[in-house]
Amino acid sequence: MELKLNKKFEPRHGELVPVAPGVWRLTAPNPSPFTFHGTNTYIVGGKGALAIIDPGPEDDTHLQALLRAIGKQPVSHIFVTHTHRDHSSLARKLSQLVGAPTAAEGPHRPARPLWNGETNHLDAGGDRDFRPDILLADGALVEGDGWALRALHTPGHAANHLAFGLEGTALTFSGDHVMAWSTTVVAPPDGAMADYIASLDRFIEREDGILLPGHGGPVFNPKQFLRGLKAHRKMRERAILDRLSAGDRTISDIVRVIYRNTDPRLHRAAALSVLAHLMDLVERGLVRVDGTATLKASYHLG
Length: 302
Fold this sequence. Notes:
The protein is an alpha/beta fold. The chain has seven helices and 15 strands. The protein has helices at residues 60-70, 85-88, 91-98, 193-204, 222-245, 251-258, 267-283, and strands at residues 17-20, 23-27, 40-44, 50-53, 75-79, 102-104, 134-135, 141-143, 148-153, 162-166, 171-175, 210-213, 219-220, 287-289, 299-301. The chain has a seven-stranded mixed sheet with strand order 1-2-3-4-5-6-7, covered by helices on one side. It has a six-stranded mixed sheet with strand order 8-9-10-11-12-13, with no helix packed on it. α4 (193-204) packs antiparallel against α5 and α6 packs across α7 (267-283). The longest helix is centred in the C-terminal third of the chain and has 24 residues, at 222-245. The two termini are 27 Å apart.
């Protein structure tokens, strides 16, 4: 199934944008090859206490815009989908200013322990200072004034990634797990490909009508898009196996071929994605590795 990405999106930085009944978006001014036009903060609620989802990066311009958007309304909860700095680093300051607790799956952690001598190439992006006031288990329901959010544990991009379903609607806040504009970075040791595919399968089983992601615009027709995402990952896996069959042995050789049309600034992330695939293939016995599965290791068909 062909994956059709949608890069049409107007961030309207600093402006509160209605996206669904009782839901507004405020996009942070932190554009980059990884964040698209910036991180989306969502405000949920009506006349009562509000919920904030992903307060965003520690950026004073975004904080002031968020405080203006909140106005004099109380905030009862600040939800965080995962602990990458562009989503969570503003949470503590906002919590202190509005007097609301933070809620997330847990502190930052990798999907697996680092091997001896291994470097976490995404370490700078992890928010190790964040500690949620409320720990949310999979399926936890948090109710507010006229709204209720259901926590959905969706590891893969990050071990502690949560999506949030807005109860009584067909709307889910998908964080970085599913985005319309791009495929998700799955990079060890923070992320794991097997976890990501399992989380995709969980979403495919749902009956969501719209997904609101952490970057870019909404995902419409989620079930079809999710199937396309899974097919894309399986095609990437097939391409990696084909390169090994053709004689490639290193991740750099594989990336040079299968990501030749990708922005070179994203090649480091692409290499980590290939590593995530290879680790999964090694675990399944389809690929052998000389020593430990790292960016520099030599790989062979199983």
